[in-house]
Write a structure and sequence with these properties.
By secondary structure, this protein is mainly beta. The protein has strands at 5-6, 12-22, 24-27, 30-33, 43-51, 63-69, 82-86, 89-95, 98-105, 107-110. It has one domain: OB fold (Dihydrolipoamide Acetyltransferase, E2P), CATH 2.40.50.
Length: 119
């Protein structure tokens, strides 16, 4: 299965619909914090993604996506703020309940900020 495929979201406007928070999951009826293999706390943010259009083009519908963040994005990322994802990737998942895409990024930056190229 293909995992962590780099994805270019520059052609989309991304607006925060739920501010970043610590990622949790339910295990044996108890909520627990989600950490990566190195024990680092993961975060999650909900974004509304809508394609950027040129004059005369039809934008179509947007879609809400949840993005796992590999680190705390810091202050200033509240509902309604437009952002860009840093080093975004996507992975396909599948289980008995269905399948889909899982988005992940190393962080957020305000939409008008310059993102340096990945090393």
């Amino acid at each position: 299965m293909l995992r962590n495929i780099p994805v270019n979201m520059q052609g989309y406007k991304l607006m925060i619909t739920e501010a970043p928070q610590e990622k949790t999951r339910e295990k044996d009826g108890v909520q627990e914090f989600v950490k990566d293999r190195e024990g680092v706390q993961q975060f999650v943010v909900s974004l509304f993604a809508k394609r950027r259009v040129q004059p005369g083009e039809f934008a179509g519908k947007g879609e809400e996506i949840k993005v796992t963040l590999t680190a705390d994005p810091g202050e200033g990322f509240e509902e309604g703020v437009y952002v860009q994802l840093i080093d975004a990737t996507v992975s396909h998942w599948e289980n008995d309940n269905g399948s889909g895409l899982a988005f992940k990024a190393n962080g957020l930056t305000p939409a008008n900020a310059h993102i340096p190229a990945a090393a």
